[in-house]
Amino acid sequence: MRKALFFGMGWVCLLLGLIGVLLPLLPTTPFIILAAYCFSRSSRRFHQMLVGHRLFGPIIRDWEAHGVIPLKVKWISSTMMLLMISYPVFFKPLHWGIDASMLGVAVIALVYIWSRPSRPRQDSNPSSKPELRPQADSADSA
To answer: What pTM does this model have?
Structure first.
């Protein structure tokens, strides 16, 4: 039952992500990553299909391995998000609550996107660190 639920959610997230390619207000990357997570819990075949995808595969692999959102993806998603909400917020006569909701969601999404690292941390190799030697006290050297 649990696998079936994850499998269904994987398809829903994948569909929402693909719709997000056409509707920039709907984010693509988070839904694709969530679909990969759901498929990793339910279907090895579909998870591998996403991880091996030409466009989405590198993003998913970076996310799964390091929690990374590449800088290029950050800039593209931020630009598209801001462009898509700017038109209705500034040029359409909508209720102020709708404008505030759109701006609030965009700010939350942007804060999250930009709070993630852009590339994997470089863990330093312990063997490459210079060896620390205790400094001799000036009184001891005399």
So the answer is: 0.61
Task: Say if residues 1 and 60 touch (Cβ distance below 8 Å).
Answer: no
Q: Is the dihedral of CA 47, 52, 118, 102 positive or negative?
A: negative
The residues, any chain, with a CB within 8 Å of residue 106's CB and separated by 6 or more, are 81, 82, 85
CA distance 13 to 24: 15
Query: Span 66-86, mean pLDDT?
Result: 85
Say how many C-beta atoms besides its own lie within 10 A of residue 109's C-beta: 15
b/e map 46-55, b = 16+ CB within 10 Å: bbeebbeeee
Where is 45: in which H helix or E strand?
helix 44-51
Task: Encode pLDDT of 118-137 as tens digits.
Answer: 888 876 444 444 444 444 44
